[in-house]
Amino acid sequence: MKKHNFSAGPSILPREVIENTAQAVLDFNGLSILEISHRSKDFQAVIDEAVALFKELLNIPEGYSVLFVGGGASMQFCMVPFNFLEKKAAYLNTGVWSKKAIKEAKAFGEVVEVASSADTTFNYIPKGFTIPTDADYFHVTSNNTIYGTEIREDLDSPVPMIADMSSDIFSRPIDVSKYICIYGGAQKNLAPSGVTFVIVKDEALNKVSRYIPTMLNYQTHVDGGSMFNTPPVLPIYSALQTLRWIKKEGGVEEMQRRAKERADMLYGEIDRNKLFRGTVANKEDRSYMNICFVMADEYKDLEADFLKFATEKGMVGIKGHRSVGGFRASCYNAMPKESVQALIDCMQEFEKLH
Asked: pTM of the prediction?
């Protein structure tokens, strides 16, 4: 039986990325990618091409560096304020990951929460808030994997912006010039877990007065070309394969078209099917990457039955996050339209049974 991988992360990767990575584990210019020196010419060529494709695909302007580091996006929650927060920072609170970023930032200075959607379990993106003009930066989490909300455009801010784009990077064009830092764990749209990407504006660094520990200083990794310490070689190699795949498939514009197509299909079924309802209050806030839904109130007792039914039909990873319940279909760039259709067919078949 074919399995359809809707896992939120680590998540689906293009088949050719997996095959190319597997081949490199066996043979990468006569050795395994697992055993080559990160200082070798062979691996330097990998990281150089990965950086170049990052810049090309996202149209990154001059004056920005692309870094590959360890520690996940969670490490960036403290690295960001370490490097950029002198006195005050502004944060938009749209869910679990925003809250964790806010908690870390409070150790470094004043944190203004400009708005929050916590009052309704983060089921919408706040609008109409005021960003303090004396903040060192304004931080957003562009896509909220747990709650299924997404900021699908680059906001206007009177101060430099920073974004956690762990789960929607490369799913749409972005205006990088609006940001001084964009970061994310790679295990959603880019690579297996184990590497974190950071896009940082060079001239925004070295502005804070505090001492920054060497490994937590972005300048260290800029100066070292992501090679200050041994980088996560295998996930970076996989990331390169994904970047090549995105370019070959038509770039981020094509990824955006596919994302909208998949989302429109599945949200259309959620809105039509009497057994289910979406969890996001406003349709314009619905994530294209993480599509969250629950059983309609009068069918709540069927939740476990549908999960079992869908699992038996080959749907993998659709159980909602434990803090929300229900279901979550993560539709990252590598998700084929056929898998979304298979889930829709499954929902329609279950509807006929009830």
From this structure: 0.97
